[in-house]
Amino acid sequence: MTSPLNNVLGVATDIQRTLSHSDFCVVIPAFNEELLLGRCIESVIGAGVAATHIYVIDDASTDTTAAIARATGVHLLSDGRKRGKLGGISAALSHFALAQRYAYLAILDADSHVAPHYFNEVWVRFLQDTETVLVCGAPQSERYNWLTAYRAYEYAVTLRLYRQGQHAMGVITVAPGCASVYRTRILPLLEWDSHTLVEDMDLTVQVHRQQLGTIAYTPHAVAYTQDPRTLRDYIGQLTRWYRGTWQVMRLRNVPFGRQRIDAEFGMLLAEGLFFAVVTLCLPILAWFWPTTVWRWLLIDQAIVLTLAVACALVLKRRDILTCFLVFPFLRVVNSVILLKTFWLEVVRRQHTLEWFTVARYDDAPSAATGPCADHAHPFAQMDGRVCTAEDA
To answer: CB neighbours (10 Å) of residue 62?
Structure first.
């Protein structure tokens, strides 16, 4: 199979390379993913990886997840055991001897799906540097409502303003679980039972800590992911992410490991904590210095609006602009969750592995409802599920 490949600047090269898809295997941990698993598998096959190189790990699902996997012809590990996401990946590595049979292993979330040239772009990044051991792609949030519009904005800003710079400096902080591919030679060296809520960040930091090789980013390997559509699910997911971040910091001695990644983590987390404190103190600050506060708020909103317009144009996402007015509310929510999780995990040292599972849903709202319609009201509630970290 041949296809035009992109260089790091996004310009199509004149060289046509043949990608050996048999070098790649794809592992998909799944717990009650009957709604979206089939779409995920179809996208991987559409990107050139045969079903015989796809491995679904059923984490004791109670729905038809296993039956859907069997119907697609992929390999399935479904023995009724509850392993959790990392435990499932570890079981697949040993059960199917993946590190011995493949050069690259991709991890995908069952609620995500990849673009047609996803594996081609990842392969090019590996070819550019033989020291590259982990390549992360570019997550994009699927369109649904005001929450997914904000998440699409966050992803775009993070990838274009932060991730590109982290790639250049060799300090990528997290290879997202929905879009990461590992060179299999390093897999036996990683710890797969670290008991944190953010396994993708922990694996990324382990690569840095052990100096196993380079972590690279390619903006052309796009993975579409389904983000929370309700405020309940959004808060639950973000709480898990933030608590997991503090857990990884404690577990891996961040930012005191005397590596460049420590400086990057320290800067980002200090910036986040500072912004969160200032945000929550705005009413008090406005009482004493109203003119100054209003001036800085206007500057802040002008910057955010400029970025939102740019994101809407680049991604062709009109919903980013139509839902822009709720962004300040979500930034306050983010600040509250960041400070709360810092207090619980770092100050109080209340370690938890409670895992909030986001409710799955159909691809998009009907055209009649629109991206910010009544069913997408900021305070609409849908059932979420709280389970342990052993759940996928």
So the answer is: 8
Cα–Cα distances in angstroms (integers) from residue 199 to residues 48, 65, 86, 340, in the given order: 27, 22, 7, 21
- Backbone dihedral region for residue 325 (phi beyond 0: left; psi -120 to 50: alpha; all else: beta): alpha
256 burial level (CB within 10 Å; 0-12, 13-18, 19+): exposed
Structure tokens at 250: 């404690």
Cα–Cα distance, 165 to 92 (Å, whole number): 34
Q: What is the CATH number of domain 24-228?
A: 3.90.550.10
Per-residue pLDDT reduced to its tens digit, 85-126: 888 999 999 999 999 999 999 999 999 999 999 999 999 999
Bridge partners, residue 2, by sequence: 18
pLDDT at 368 (0 to 100): 34
Q: Domain locations in the chain?
A: 24-228, 249-388
Residue with tokens 């309940």: 232
Predicted confidence (pLDDT) per residue in 215-264, tens digit = 999 999 999 999 999 999 999 999 999 999 999 999 999 999 999 999 99
Q: pTM for the complete prediction?
A: 0.86
Q: Can the peptide bond before residue 255 be classed as cis, meaning omega within 30 degrees of 0?
A: yes
| Cα gap 161→220, rounded to integer Å | 16
Token digits for 165? 């710079």
Query: In terms of Cα–Cα distance, which of 366, 352, 359, 362 is closest to 380?
Result: 359
Contacts of 148 (CB under 8 A, 6+ apart): 141, 142, 227, 228, 229, 319
Contact between residue 139 and residue 225 where contact means Cβ atoms under 8 Å apart: yes
Instruction: Give 222's strand partners.
Output: 138
- Cα 30 off chain centre by: 16
Which range has the worst mean pLDDT, 146-155, 250-259, 335-344, 373-382?
A: 373-382
pLDDT band, very low/low/confident/very high, at 362 (cuts 50, 70, 90): confident
Measured from the Cβ of residue 216, the count of other Cβ atoms closer than 10 Å reads 22
Contact call for residues 136 and 167 (beta carbons, < 8 A) = no
Across the beta sheet with 132-141, what order do the strands follow? 75-77, 54-58, 24-30, 104-107, 180-183, 132-141, 214-225, 112-114
pLDDT of residue 42: 97
